[in-house]
Amino acid sequence: MANFYTDNNILKFHLEHPLMEKIVALREKNFSDSSKFDYAPFDFEDAMDSYDKVLEAIGEICGDIIGPNAESIDTEGPRVVDGHVVYARGTQENLDALSKAGLLGITLPREYGGLNFPIIPYIMAADMVSRADAGFVNIWGLQDCAETIHEFADEDQKNRYLPRVCQGETMAMDLTEPDAGSDLQAVELKATFDEKKGKWMLNGVKRFITNGDGDIALVLARSEEGTHDGRGLSMFIYDKRDGGVTVRRIEHKMGIIGSPTCELVFKNAPSELVGQRRMGLIKYVMALMNGARLGIAAQSVGVSEAAYREALAYANEREQFGKPIIQFPAIYEMISVMKAKLDASRSLLYETGRFVDMYKSYYHISNERALDKDEREEMKLYQKLADIYTPLAKGMTSEFCNQNAYDAIQVHGGSGFMKDYPVERIYRDARITTIYEGTTQLQVVAAIRGVTTGGYLAQIREYEKTQLKPELEQYRRILIGLTEEFAEAVERVVATKDNEYIDFHARRLVEMAGTIIMSYLLILDANRDMENLRSAKVFNKIARQVVHGHGEFIRGTSVSDMANYKFELE
Q1: Which of 437, 471, 485, 488 is catalytic?
Q2: Whole-prediction pTM
Q3: Residue 253's CATH number
Q4: What total of structural domains would you count in the chain?
Q5: Same structural domain for residues 107 and 242?
Q6: Of 148, 267, 333, 567, which is least packed with CB atoms within 10 Å of its CB?
Q7: Which residues make Cβ contacts (< 8 Å) with residue 457, sequence separation at least 6?
């Protein structure tokens, strides 16, 4: 029997990161739930044992059910019947298996039926589910929307909706529209309050909605008549039981076929306001999107894992010229680079997850009591790190995911182009990761603040201070040099005080920061366990190539050079 947790030791390695002890203590509020719930942990070791057992259960379901179902789901796909989505048979089987095992709503508090897990084991589960089937994780993973209800809804709403998620009901976030994709300020779905019914009525169309026919949806709509920007938008909860929404069609997509991407028609659909009016985009969607971006990073890592494993297995089995192709330098270099990018992506994913865990834990505590000065400072620090690392993680991991999927096809040669091998589906599934929940270009827009404000540089300096094993010191010296080159590039670009020029180089600067950070994280992983040294060595060379290349481009570019890249409107 396959198990996607026990066959991948690096997951447990990340689960056992030293910061987890503090994360668990904060999350469990010093284990106060142990007197109220018989399944609540009574100490750190008990909590870690619980995470380990649950992840093993998810790993088994991934290996025995979700993974084997992926091909049939990709072939069958969902369909629309009487205005509603009917999942592929395998999709429903996957959901039933996870629901029966009590593995939905795992981050929600126990009073709602959840397991109160930190974010780290949750995204670890998403990592495994994505490896099994990237399309299915979009349905399972949207349970993260419940966190927005937990953070911002009133107690009555929490009590009515959160237990349903824990019991297996699915969610959706209805944001984009035909004329409002990345520009959510342009959302026009109309919300009008009906005094008699005491409900907000929604009217309009939403497009590109993942799992759009989910049981519970968070809907961004225009509540303020006469407005045309983000200040007129509010967030609403729509309950499928109340009716008023039909699925016009399921989009015909390149990949993630099992995930129904829907166009929805709202006709007097009753809904409830979440939190305050006018704060839908400004506050609630931003929180929702950050969670979704971390989820896409986990999806990207899972797909990278699948691509790497398929390439490695094929290269060991396929013989040409009398020997397995894994013995040819062109192949073993490619696969080693794939592994290094995978490991770097995973290290960045879980580093980001730890920052989010620390911030979120303090946030929830602050809703119950006043934080002391040290706690407030720590919360502020981790919030800042979570804010700048989330777009970096989404952008870097999704780009590496696509590169690994591309290389997996290349290792397979002509066979990889055929549907006989999983890499064809993996390649199609990977492509969306750099697009939805904000394209890589938009992640750069969000991440560049971490460059220009010195946020990334400050954290890199913290990594520099770590005491390393003697055999790792040479890599620290290399990274110190790359950091200086990065700092010089930032100074050179920012000194122009030309915002368009800064935007022109933004992706290069973000990639420089990202590769240095990822390289440091792999060195720190090796410092904990030298089994991780191989990928650290390979990625260190990748970092040199990226930083030197981007640095040289920036040094050789001036503001006037931008004219060569511009187009006149025709």
Answers
A1: 437
A2: 0.97
A3: 2.40.110.10
A4: 4
A5: no
A6: 567
A7: 451, 483, 486, 487, 490, 513
